[in-house]
Amino acid sequence: MAVIANKRSIMTLYSGNNDPYSHRVRIVLAEKGVSYEVVDVNSSHKAMEELCEYNPHGAVPTLVDRDLVLYQSEIIMEYLDERFPHPPLMPVYPVAKGRSRLMIHRVNTDWYVPMNVILNPNSGPAAVDAARKELTDSITGITPVFAEMPFFLSEEFSLVDCCIAPLLWRLSKMGIKLPPQAGAIMTYAEKIFKRESFQASLTESERVMKL
User: What pTM does this model have?
Assistant: First the structure.
């Protein structure tokens, strides 16, 4: 279904101020140094109404770029990487690109699914406890991979890192403290958190999460 958007002349991101999927996209935009307008849908009812004019699902993140409307964070991130090719955040070669897409899928399935349960206010205590254990065990189990290269399975910062970073930033909010054997992933996390693009991507609500 074609969606036509002609009300905005500058690239606009409809974003949640503490939404991890929106956070992913904000990191990519900061890495690319793109000028854009951000509309915080949590700020007013009018902002949500405006979002629904572009996205019938009313979901964030939603990107409006001239006549193009995109939603789903992975689609937006890949679009931005191709639209603004420097610095590249996805490999050029098909095999490596396919591997990166698979890793993003695994992060979504193995980590974001339990995270969503933990952060959902409607989840019961038993479900939250089970999801917290599942996520802690999964992150701890893959820790050795983070010691192998500067970034996740890569010499360069990539879209996979953009997906992982928002979740690691929210560990304390989720009541998760990783065990000592997960030291490599915490070293990785602190390195990512110090990146200029990551700091630029944070909303005030997200900054409070680490206090």
Answer: 0.93
